Amino acid sequence: MCTENVPPLPIEDSMPSKDLPQVIPAQMRRVNNLISRRVNYYSRENGVEDVTAMHGWILAYLYQYQDREIFQRDIERAFSITRSTVTNILQLMEKKGYIRRMSVPQDARLKRLVLTEAGAEAHRQILRSLHQTDESVNALLTAEESAELLRLLNKLRAGLE
C-alpha cells in the first residue's frame, strides 16, 4: 500500500511536538488519536463516514453471529452498555437501514436484531478502512519493528489488565 497519496492529517495542537512530554501514556494517546483520524479518513473515502465506532462494533458483532438469534440484551451484555444507550444506538442504526428488528413467534415483546445488506456492506467497508489503516501504519515500520511493537503492546496490555 502506498501512503504517498494519503494527505497528511492536520495537527490540532498549537504546541510543537518536540515540546510535548515524552512519557509513554502521552505518546500512546497521541498515536492513538492519529490512527483514529486515519481510520476516519479511510472510512470517509470508503463511504462509511456516518458510522460511529460503537455502530461499527455492533455491526461486527451482528455480522459474526448472523447464524444466531441476537437480541438487544445480547448487545447490552457484549459491550457492557445500558439498556437505554443500546435502545438509542439501535434506533439510529435501524433508521440508517443497517439493522432490522423482527418479532419472534414465542414472545411478541422480544425483537431479534437482523443485519441488513446495507449493514453488512457498511461492516465490510469498515473492515476495509481498518485494513487500509493497518497497511498505512505498517508501511512506516520494518517487519522487525512491527513485530517488536506488537510484542511490547501485548506485554503492556497483559500487564495492565
UniProtKB/TrEMBL annotation:
<dbReference type="GO" id="GO:0003700">
    <property type="term" value="F:DNA-binding transcription factor activity"/>
</dbReference>
<dbReference type="InterPro" id="IPR000835">
    <property type="entry name" value="HTH_MarR-typ"/>
</dbReference>
<dbReference type="GO" id="GO:0003677">
    <property type="term" value="F:DNA binding"/>
</dbReference>
<keyword id="KW-0238">DNA-binding</keyword>
<feature type="domain" description="HTH marR-type">
    <location>
        <begin position="17"/>
        <end position="158"/>
    </location>
</feature>
<keyword id="KW-0805">Transcription regulation</keyword>
<dbReference type="InterPro" id="IPR036388">
    <property type="entry name" value="WH-like_DNA-bd_sf"/>
</dbReference>
<keyword id="KW-0804">Transcription</keyword>
<dbReference type="Pfam" id="PF12802">
    <property type="entry name" value="MarR_2"/>
</dbReference>
<dbReference type="InterPro" id="IPR036390">
    <property type="entry name" value="WH_DNA-bd_sf"/>
</dbReference>
<protein>
    <submittedName>
        <fullName>MarR family transcriptional regulator</fullName>
    </submittedName>
</protein>
